[in-house]
Design a protein that fits this description.
The chain is built from 11 helices and 14 strands. It is of the alpha+beta class. The chain folds into 3 domains: 5-50, Uridine Diphospho-n-acetylenolpyruvylglucosamine Reductase, domain 2, CATH 3.30.43; 61-170, Uridine Diphospho-n-acetylenolpyruvylglucosamine Reductase, domain 3, CATH 3.30.465; 176-281, 2-Layer Sandwich (Enolase-like, domain 1), CATH 3.30.390. A hairpin with a 2-residue loop joins strand 6 (132-137) and strand 7 (140-145). The longest helix is centred in the C-terminal third of the chain and has 20 residues, at 262-281.
Length: 282
């Protein structure tokens, strides 16, 4: 690892100032990705900006319209928070899937998003929960829908000098459910071969909202909008679920690698989508 300078700001303004004019600087939230990249020589930086002392990035707040989740909140705090477990159980479950116990004490959902890995477990669920990212930078504060946040493998929509402050998740309506399923070769601490996040609202026997997103089958986590169009307005049924799962399978653009061939990944998209949709539409 090459030497670098280190700062730990305590306010958003201090963090913006530290990053200003230094495009090679890197933000450290949990460090589970960044430190491994620096140690392995896959990334270099003259400056690390540790944002774990900024209150906005460490808070879990229930607001009138939903949940505001700080970008640097460790996964273990999300997985064990009683409000999150009660109102966003799928989010608590995903937070408990990211790495082992030691990793969960450092890794954050915000970091999982910013790392922009196609296989990120948290991102498909954030997409189906309609999460919105709040970003700070030299131009002030702006918001980005999570489905637009990852733009290429390892690349996100943050501009020069910008960093993720928090995520806002709208309050679930009555009849709303969300679920995340993944296929991994081992029981834990593995990268998903395929991941599927789904959400739906059923009101008076009719699907009124539906979202589905995939991991590990495209250059970025993939929001399958065709599923929304296919399900909204229909009654929950095996036929509707099968049709939506087929759309998810068709939308996948997987590659073959050491973990699975492309055709197997595409097949898994259909299987996991059907199972996840069944779970939320029961």
């Amino acid at each position: 690892m090459k030497p670098f300078d280190y700062v730990a700001p305590t306010t958003l303004d201090e963090a913006v100032h530290a990053l200003a004019g230094n495009p090679a600087a890197r933000v450290l939230a949990g460090g589970t990705d960044l430190l491994a990249q620096l140690k392995g020589g896959r990334r270099e930086t003259p400056l690390v900006v540790d944002v774990k002392r900024i209150p906005d990035l460490l808070s879990i707040r229930m607001e009138e319209g939903g949940l505001r989740l700080g970008a640097a909140v460790p996964c273990i705090r999300i997985a064990t928070n009683p409000d999150v477990r009660a109102q966003y159980p799928a989010l608590a479950e995903v937070a408990s899937l990211i790495g082992g116990t030691a990793i969960q004490g450092r890794a954050s959902i915000g970091g999982n998003l910013c790392n922009a890995a196609p296989s990120a477990d948290a991102v498909p669920l954030l997409i189906v929960l309609s999460a919105v990212a709040r970003v700070a930078g030299p131009g002030g504060i702006r918001e980005i829908a999570v489905e637009d946040f990852c733009v290429a493998p390892g690349k996100n929509a943050l501009g020069e000098g910008e960093f993720l402050v928090d995520l806002f998740l709208p309050k679930p309506a009555a009849g709303f459910k969300a679920h995340y399923l993944r296929f991994i070769p081992r029981n834990e601490m593995d990268i998903a071969v395929v991941g599927v996040g789904v959400s739906a609202t059923v009101t008076d026997g009719q699907i009124t909202t539906a979202r589905l997103a995939l991991a590990s089958v495209a250059p970025t986590p993939l929001f399958v909008r065709e599923v929304t169009e296919a399900l909204v307005g229909k009654a929950p049924s095996a036929e509707a679920i099968a049709g939506a799962a087929a759309l998810a399978e068709a939308a996948a653009k997987p590659i073959s690698d050491m973990r699975a061939p492309a055709e197997y990944r595409r097949h898994l998209c259909g299987v996991l989508s059907r199972r996840a949709l069944t779970a939320v539409l029961q």
